[in-house]
Amino acid sequence: MKLPSLTIGKFTAKFPLIQGGMSIRVSTSALAAPVASCGGIGVIGGSALPTEELAADIRKAKSMTDGVIGVNIMYAMKNFYNLVMCSIEAGVDMIITGAGFSRDIFKIGKEHNVPIVMIVSSPALAKMAEKLGAAAVIVEATEAGGHLGTDRPLREIFPPIRDVVKNIPLIAAGGITNGYEMAEMMDQYGADGIQIASRFVLSEECDVADEFKQAYLNANKEDIVLTSSPVGMPGRAIRTPFVAAKNAGVDHSTKKCLHLCLKKCDHHYCISERLTASRAGNIEEGLVFAGANTYKMKEILPVAEIFRLFKEQAESVYKEGKGFAPAC
């Protein structure tokens, strides 16, 4: 059976898939635009970027596609408000945010007619987000890459959140690697769509260094571990030499912060420098965020082929949607 479309605010994606926004410069217009052109929601990772660079990349993405383009901005960023406003001024279609909870973002979204999508890991925050005006909620579980708001798996935390979110789309995120799992989350758990990120790192269009992609391809299950982050949340990453040393207790603390990117930072290492290093190919000293099931993915594909496979697999087993159905 054909999968339904996904409507968030005034925007409709033909295929119910959001590409996760990965910072720093992992998901840029080079990735987001092809995703949007394939019918999904393409997302630029906006955290820790200069506002001028983010605005320019949003405009570039919008010029490359007629599809839906969003931006992901962590609430933990010191210049969160400036990043939000520059994104709106650049014409972004929607804003996705997590790593903290902002009440004011919903007022900003309403004022500028820009849908706000909140990433949560608990029923309480999901219910609050809907009440405050979220256009959709993403349920992100422990299997996700990057910063984590829970240590519980997706199939455990999704049902109680589905029970309290009634009137807006609810998106499943964390560890989904193929269309069969997509159909499972929509059929059996009532998700209105999915968000995936790690699968798109292993796309031809993702413009990270080859060494970054090879770290994904070479990773075994035991190589994907939890580590600490200056953001104040645990993060899921590949066990690079830096991460292995950090988890073993080696001191990487910084005496002076050059980036001033976080509202609160314990300075036990500079996350901006480590993410930038890995993106450029310095895996030895870099931080490579990755989902728990990254080890299952062993090939680099064009974005269009990823969509084709997800669509073919999902629609071969999809039966009927049980999630939120927008009024006609």
In summary, what is this structure?
GO terms for molecular function: dioxygenase activity; nitronate monooxygenase activity. With 328 residues, this protein is α/β, with parallel strands linked by helices. The chain is built from 12 helices and 13 strands.
Describe this structure in words.
The structure is a single chain. This protein has helices at residues 29-37, 51-64, 80-89, 104-112, 123-132, 154-164, 179-187, 198-201, 210-218, 241-247, 271-279, 303-317, and strands at 6-8, 11-13, 17-19, 41-45, 68-74, 94-98, 116-120, 136-140, 146-147, 170-173, 193-196, 224-227, 235-238. The chain is α/β, with parallel strands linked by helices and 328 residues long. The protein folds into 2 domains: 6-206 and 298-317, TIM Barrel; 210-295, no CATH class. The strands form 3 sheets. It has an 8-stranded parallel beta sheet. Strands 9-13-12 form a 3-stranded antiparallel beta sheet, with helices on one face. Helix 2 (51-64) packs parallel to helix 3 and helix 5 runs parallel beside helix 6 (154-164). The protein is globular and about 50 Å long. The two termini are 21 Å apart. The mean pLDDT is 93.
